[in-house]
Amino acid sequence: MIVCIGAGPGDTGYLTQRGAQLIREADVVAGFDAVLDVVRALIPAGATVINMNYRDQVAQLDNVALEHHAGKRCAVVLMGDIHFSGFQYLERVERACGHPVESLPGISSAQILASRARVCFDETTFITFHRRGDLAPFKRHLVHVLQDGRNAIVIPCPWDEARSFMPWHIAAYLMEQGISPDHPTEVWENLTRGEAEWHGTLAECAGHRCSDMSIMLVRTLAPMASQIEPAP
Ligand SMILES: C[S@@+](CC[C@H](N)C(=O)[O-])C[C@H]1O[C@@H](n2cnc3c(N)ncnc32)[C@H](O)[C@@H]1O
């Protein structure tokens, strides 16, 4: 058995009961250090822990795959929900194992943001820049989302200077593309764990600095009117 488990946004109160059960029953628990820290109390005393970072993740996932093929129950734990800005990691796990791997959804930082900021998913698009490969199609899509009158929930890219696309870069890029500087914009940090929130306009966001553990909301300038039935 091997399963990729979404650990939620940081506080274990947001880890699903099924995720907690799978970790408690695992022979091997693997993940990035920061995520393992979230679930540490649930890891059985006798379990093998395989921790990894961006540089050694491919080699460490090969070790997880060896354990899996030896018949061990393996839980690979990821931040938030694997299906938002975690899918490339699932692809790496599957490549190491040589077959598709089950995933268990977790609560995403995007869901917590939507709840804090009172945003309706139906009228909002999620975009991440925290991924390998060509970001250009995702940048274009973000512009189209705002031009189409939707909100955007955006995970920035915190990597090295060359690739970094943090909220201040995103705001500057959007304005260069002709998006109004007046869009209400929010940046939320460390959701569920010592949160900080910032509210301003897109123009002001270009001058606002935040930590890597941030998620951004760019609101539409024209929120949809409620379409529920008239009040009795
Ligand atoms: C690789 S992405 C994983 C996102 C995750 N799969 C999810 O659904 O939330 C990691 C980035 O998500 C954002 N993030 C994750 N947890 C967060 C939290 N609790 N508060 C704010 N941002 C968060 C940060 O931008 C972080 O660098």
At a glance:
One of its GO terms (molecular function) is protein methyltransferase activity. The chain has about 230 residues and is an alpha/beta fold.
Number of helices: 8
Give the oligomer, counting copies of the same chain as homo and different chains as hetero: single chain
Distance between the termini: 54 Å
Compute the number of structural domains: 2
CATH fold-level assignment of the largest domain = Methyltransferase, Cobalt-precorrin-4 Transmethylase, Domain 2
Question: What would CATH call the homologous superfamily of the largest domain?
Answer: Tetrapyrrole methylase, C-terminal domain
What secondary-structure arrangement, pairings included, does this model have?
Layout: E1 2-6, H1 17-24, E2 28-32, H2 33-39, E3 48-52, H3 57-69, E4 74-78, H4 87-97, E5 102-104, H5 109-117, E6 124-128, H6 136-147, E7 151-155, H7 167-176, E8 184-189, E9 196-201, H8 202-205, E10 214-218
Parallel strand pairs: 1-4, 1-5, 2-3, 2-4, 6-7
Antiparallel strand pairs: 7-10, 8-9, 8-10
Helix pairs in contact: 3-4
